[in-house]
Specification:
Radius of gyration: 18 Å
Helix content: 25-40%
Strand content: 35-45%
Number of helices: 3
CATH architecture of the largest domain: 2-Layer Sandwich
Strand order of the largest sheet: 7-6-5-4-8
Largest sheet: 5 strands, antiparallel
Distance between the termini: 40 Å
Number of domains: 2
Order of helices and strands: HEEHEHEEEEE
CATH topology of the largest domain: GMP Synthetase, Chain A, domain 3
Length: 154
Amino acid sequence: MKRTEIEKRCEDLVMPILNEHHFTLWDVEYVKEGSNYYLRVYVDKEGGITIDDCVTVSRALEVKLDEEDFIEDAYILEVSSPGLGRPLKRERDYERSVGQEVDIKLYKALNGQKEYSGLLKAYDENTVTIEYEDGSEECFERPTIALIRLAFDI
């Protein structure tokens, strides 16, 4: 089974659990790191997710995954918060991030610069627009963006 199929099936299994607890799904990823496979589920809620919330989701999802048993390899299940600096991957990520500070990294430099920061002003299937502190805006073609994530101050 392909990685994307595993992620999709896991997403289908976890959504009823998240809906029951009024949590939101940020992402599901199935990756191999070293000799281990990881099934990572990133969840969030208004006010932030807690360790107890992650345990609740993990235990319920574990039961469903054991029942379905569709992942051939041994894997480690991790349920966690998407954390600071979470990448925007899906349309719903962009939607809930409008008006928030984002960092953008481009594949190639634009005007001698590869990194930009500003408020996420708008987006569509082809572009992302940010607003700088001075009120000016810049629009980026989505294929030129290597990474866009919520900004965080250290």
